[in-house]
Specification:
- There is one protein chain.
- It is built from 17 helices and 20 strands.
- With 440 residues, the chain is α/β, with parallel strands linked by helices.
- The strands form three sheets. Strands 7-8-6-9-10-11-12-13-14 form a nine-stranded mixed sheet, sandwiched between helices. Strands 15-16-20-17-18-19 form a six-stranded mixed sheet, with helices on both faces.
- α6 runs parallel beside α11 and α13 (326-333) packs parallel to α14.
- The radius of gyration is 23 Å and the shape is globular.
Length: 440
């Protein structure tokens, strides 16, 4: 299956989950592997890698590591304007992502999910559904590199793909590609929304006539791709007629009822769209309706994504810590119609527009508790929009207490911000939320 990498020099840029998985893979193939990391060493547990013969440097990108490399595997967040990329270009060393490498051997076994929001839930749901008929694994931006599974003889790789990874995946052309939606995000990396969109769109423009694109026709930017593609296109919509759509609270595929919304164990319109994507993949791969319905009914939402935590008295607590931008929080707010909701928001500000966020809060939310570095800007923006039911808290724990005292139907952590002002990650923030709620 793979070419002979024995004694070939392979460069890994970035000491990351992706980089480590790639290094182990090539080391097992007998390659001379070099990991180069610009930041200072933080991980003391490198002995297992060096015992595999992997060379590692921190604090620099040295000529010794770079020169004469066959190619370079990039960790996803290597900046587009970084010196290491300029050096690789000057020395004519090809570089690409782990997804690109996987695609060069397994294009026809890949189902790739991209978009701004909903990627992880869709990825896990698609994989759960495929497991009823195939040997599949989820990987990619979900936290597992495809390098972990390249020797596993899978039927399908179900891949969550970030814009960072796709930026460095020039020829990736999977069997099926899903575009969940697009809202502004990662602007500091891509420069503007158009570049962010293009990093994802090229995945679909690479698709051939035997491939399948699944597009959100409720999203104006995503739906415009339809006219530019040379592949089979399936449209999903919760608002209009499409290949798969919503009619009288039932999901309909080509006039055939698949499942009632009441039987879907996920809340919110965005999750109905995620379910539609998974159904379309199943239909393309000839999975029968009984298996589809069983898979959906038995699926559990991934952590930190509108995750129900606990009911205390008459208040439900939901952890949506993955909502690291205002657009993701807007989606979460629509998941609780006719509910008295107290929203906990704030964190490290991404400095994107808050206009739609404020409008949605004013329409949907009874009270807001703000935490973190973004508190002042969020409060000012909400006040300017005519919303004043705002409470400041100095910690997440205090925010939970204050929210509970208001006796709402729902206390929702959906921060609309990154977590790094107070937490190690959005996962850490969500775990703190859940731990404190469970202790109450």
């Amino acid at each position: 299956m793979f070419e002979n990498f024995r004694n070939k020099k392979i460069l890994i840029v970035g000491y990351s989950l992706t980089g480590i998985a790639a290094a182990k893979f090539f080391a097992k193939k007998g390659a001379d592997v070099f990991i180069t990391e610009l930041s200072d060493q933080k991980d003391r547990n490198i002995d297992k890698l060096t015992k595999l013969g992997i060379n590692i440097e921190f604090g620099k990108h040295s000529d010794e590591f770079i020169n004469n490399a066959e190619f370079a595997i990039l960790s996803p967040s290597v900046p587009l304007n970084s010196n290491i990329l300029k050096t690789l270009q000057e020395r004519k060393i090809e570089y690409f992502s782990d997804l690109e490498f996987c695609s060069r051997y397994f294009n026809n076994k890949m189902v790739v999910i991209t978009g701004t929001n909903g990627k992880t839930t869709t990825t896990m749901l698609v994989n759960h559904l495929l497991s009823y008929k195939f040997n599949s694994k989820y990987c990619g931006n979900i936290g597992i590199s495809p390098f972990e599974y390249l020797d596993s003889n899978l039927d399908y790789f179900v891949v969550e793909a970030s814009s960072y990874q796709l930026e460095y995946s020039p020829t990736i052309s999977p069997k099926i590609a899903i575009f969940t939606n697009l809202t502004p995000d990662h602007i500091s990396f891509h420069g503007n929304v158009e570049n962010y969109f293009l990093s994802k769109a090229k995945l679909f423009k690479n698709l051939c006539k035997d491939s399948f694109a699944i597009l959100n026709f409720d999203d104006s930017m995503v739906s415009k791709l339809n006219s530019e593609l040379n592949c089979n296109v399936y449209a999903f919509s919760t608002k209009n007629k499409a290949d798969i759509c919503l009619v009288d609270e039932k999901i309909i595929f080509n006039e055939e009822e698949i499942i009632s919304v009441d039987d879907i164990p996920l809340c919110g319109e965005h999750n109905i769209q995620n379910v539609m994507c998974a159904i379309l993949v199943a239909k393309i791969l000839n999975i029968d309706n009984e298996a589809i319905v069983n898979a959906i009914k038995t699926f559990k939402a991934p952590e930190h994504r509108c995750e129900f935590v606990r009911r205390i008295n008459n208040t439900d607590f939901y952890n949506d810590s993955k909502a690291t931008n205002p657009e993701a929080t807007i989606v979460a707010l629509d998941a609780f119609p006719s509910k008295n909701v107290c929203l906990i928001a704030g964190g490290r500000d991404k400095n994107t527009s808050l206009d739609e966020f404020c409008s949605k809060v004013k329409e949907k939310i009874h009270d807001v508790v703000l935490i973190g570095e973004a508190t002042s800007r969020f409060e000012s923006a909400l006040n300017e929009a005519g919303y004043n039911n705002i409470i400041r808290a100095s910690s997440l724990e205090e925010a939970i207490d204050l929210g509970q005292k208001l006796n709402p139907d729902v206390v929702l952590l959906s921060p609309a911000c990154a977590s790094f002002d107070m937490f190690k990650s959005f996962e850490h923030r969500g775990e703190v939320f859940k731990d404190y709620v469970f202790k109450k």
